[in-house]
Design brief:
Radius of gyration: 22 Å
Structural class: alpha+beta
Distance between the termini: 43 Å
Number of strands: 8
Helix content: 25-40%
Number of helices: 6
Bound molecules: zinc ion
Number of domains: 2
Largest sheet: 8 strands, mixed
Amino acid sequence: MSLFRRESSRAEDRFEAWLKRMHQERVLSGQTEPAGPCPDEAFLRGVARRSKKIRLSDPRIDHAANCANCMNRILAMRQSIRSERKKLALGLSAVCLVIVVGVIAGSQYRFHHRHTVGIAAPVSTTVDLWSTGTFRGAQPGQLQSVLLPAASVSLTIILPRFSTPGQYLVAVTRDQSGNGVVAEGIATAFASNGQEKLSVNLNLRSAKAGAYFLSTTDKQHQAAYYYPLQIRQSTPLTPH
Ligand SMILES: [Zn+2]
């Protein structure tokens, strides 16, 4: 590792420690608004121990990181864990930094958008592929460009005419051969008003704005179709 890399990662560590301190101060002084009820002690202990069983997507994580009570409990638990296991307490694990930085982003968002829905709420959107070609191997024609935000998206797809029911794999990929999967999900098509539809959640939060492909693969026939897709930056955070 070069000296430069070491220097810059040290600077990053300092920056992250600073962010964490700033965030903790705001939470402990009651400036944040936690959503939902306080999770139970076992969960907080899991957070304090950075248990792998706890998923970062768990809304209770979001709560705990914005609640003065929970944060106090976690800090106290961490203190005792630290004295038990000094070695493990050295520094912060990458997982914890991800939580803290992610939560700061979330709480900053809420701080500026107190009256709007939290950042975790997925953006609902519908993509209508009804009148696109369904010839296998053929390029889908006359498709208005599909536009999705770089966010957690709750996507409803109206499948092309003559699509069959059953399971589909929906993916956002870099290219038309299915490489560079950005997000994917499995959904079962359901009939609605004579159309086959499917609903799937795609996490595009970490996707950079740009050109991608939306693919639907009929699991039964293993037929994949690719549609040009644009991902745009999610609404910028505008303080007011
Ligand atoms: Zn709480």
